[in-house]
Amino acid sequence: SRTKLTYESRANLAKSPVAKRLFNLMATKQTNLCLAADLSEADAILDMADKCGPYICLLKTHVDIVSDFSESFIVNLQALATRHNFLLMEDRKFADIGNTVSLQYGQGLYKIANWADLVTAHTLPGRSIVQGLKAALGGANSAKERGVFLLAEMSASGNLIDEKYKENSNKIATEGGDVDFVAGVVCQSADCFAFPGLIQLTPGVKIDEGVDKLGQQYQTPEHVVKERGADIGVVGRGILQASNVEKTAASYRDRLWAAYQERVAK
Ligand code: S5P
User: Fold this and answer.
1) Taking the model in full, what pTM does it have?
2) What is the DSSP string of the chain?
3) Complex ipTM, two decimals?
C-alpha cells in the first residue's frame, strides 16, 4: 500500500509537478508538518512563519481572515517560504462552477494564483472545478507550478460526506486529463485513495485528542500518520496557542516524522 512507500519513491510516481516538489522537499528537509497559520494580523502570521519555518514543509493560509491584507504581506510571506524552504497553500476550499472558481482563483483582492503553490477545493461541483482552476493559469503562473488538493473527507463532526462522495472524489483525483494538476487529497483516512503519487493532507491534529467547541475533532500525530494514512499533518491551534511556539512546532515535527519513519520501516 502507498503508506509503506517513502516520500522519495512517491515523488517519482507523482503526476503533479508540485506534488513531486513537495514530496522531495519533505524527504530532504525531513518534515511532514504543515502549519495552519490561522491568524488575522499579517505581522502575526509572518512572525509565526519565521518561527516555525525551519520545521514545516507547508504553510497553509486563509487569506480572507487577514484584516490588514496587502501585497507586501504576500511578498514577505514568499520571502520567508524561500528562506526556510516551505511551500504555500491557500486553503480557499473552492466549491463553485468552473467559471466562477477560475475568477476567484485568479482575480479579486487576493490574486491567489499569483502566489499560492497549492490551493484546496471541494469536489462537490464535480471535475469541472479542476478544469476551472486550471483555466485561471497561464503565462507566469503556469499549471506546472501550481496544484490543488481535493477534499474527500472533513474533520468536522456531523459533516455530510459519505462513502459514495469519497469514492467519487477519488475518481476526480485520479482519472481524466487534469490529474497532473491534482497534488493530493485532504482527508481523514488511508482508504480515500490508493495512488501513491498523491499526497494525503490530514487536519485535526493535536497532541491532546478531543474536540473544540465548534465541531473540530482532533487526533494525535502518531494516530493520523500510522492509523489514518496521513502524509502531512496539519496543525493550527496546537502550535499557534502554545506558550513556546518554536519548541512546540519542533515537537510536532519530531512526532509526525518519527511516526512516518516507523510506518515505512515496518
Ligand atoms: O476537514 C478539514 C479540512 C481542513 S483544510 N478540517 C480542517 O480543520 N481543515 C483546516 O485545518 C481548517 O480550515 C484549519 O485551517 C485547520 C485546522 O486548524 P486547527 O486549529 O483546528 O488545528
Assistant:
1) 0.98
2) -GGGS-HHHHHHH-SSHHHHHHHHHHHHHT--EEEE---SSHHHHHHHHHHHGGG-SEEEE-GGG-TT--HHHHHHHHHHHHHHT-EEEEEEEE-S-HHHHHHHHHSTTT-GGGT-SEEEEESTT-THHHHHHHHT-BTTB-GGG-EEEEES--SBTT----HHHHHHHHHHHHSSTTGGGEEEEE-SSGGG---TTSEEEE--B-SS-EE-TTSBEEB-HHHHHHTS--SEEEESHHHHT-SSHHHHHHHHHHHHHHHHHHHHH-
3) 0.99
